[in-house]
Amino acid sequence: MCPHRRPTEDGARSSAEKQGGRVRVARETFFVGHQLNAVDGKGRVSVPAAFRAQLERRAQEDGKEPVKELMIAPSPKGDRLRAFDPAGVRDRDAKFSARVADLPAAERADAEEDAFRDELATATPVAFDSAGRMVLPPILRKLGKIGDLAFFVGVRDYFEILSPENARIAFANNAMMLGMLDHYLEERGEA
Questions:
Q1: What is the pLDDT of residues 116-149, one digit of tens each?
Q2: What is the CATH number of the domain that holds 30?
Q3: Going edge to edge, which strands form the sheet with 34-38?
Q4: Neighbouring C-beta atoms of residue 85, cutoff 10 Å
Q5: pTM of this prediction?
Q6: Which residues contact 117 (CB under 8 A, 6 or more apart)?
Q7: Would you give the DSSP letter of residue 153?
Q8: What residue numbers bound the domain in which 165 lies?
Q9: Which of 28, 24, 5 lies closest to 16, judged by CA?
Q10: Number of folded domains that form the chain
């Protein structure tokens, strides 16, 4: 798992702009990679080391001190969790604002609130220690259908946490991702 750095055209560290009807947040570092980690009976699991390094770089890009806390929310798809760092929450908020910027003022505030509610209002702050260990609260494990294994997948400005069973369904059309999942399961003697 290696970090991905994307140069920006104008040198901006993080900004939202509209391109062809889509909002793009220019950021040099975003979440890429994957890993399968064990979850114990109390919900303890480790954030992958590469994601922790990416969290640190993203904070540095914004001129901030890295925080050891994620905002974790069930995905609107209902089959996984999504973990955002503070930069990801800000980027998401900028996307919400840009998406509704053309609406009349009276509609804009409601549309922005609806978008935030749909995406982030269900988030729970979850701290992790210097070794990356965090405790997923029972409600998040239930909503994300996370059992004794968690498959982490980087998705640009956040990362997803899926059960292997749900990952198999979600990536049914992605032979490469399924091959990686199978490899991790074989390493653990789970396949």
A1: 777 778 899 999 999 999 999 999 999 999 999 9
A2: 3.40.1550.20
A3: 34-38, 149-155, 158-162, 81-84, 69-74, 124-127
A4: 25
A5: 0.79
A6: none
A7: E
A8: 4-187
A9: 24
A10: 1
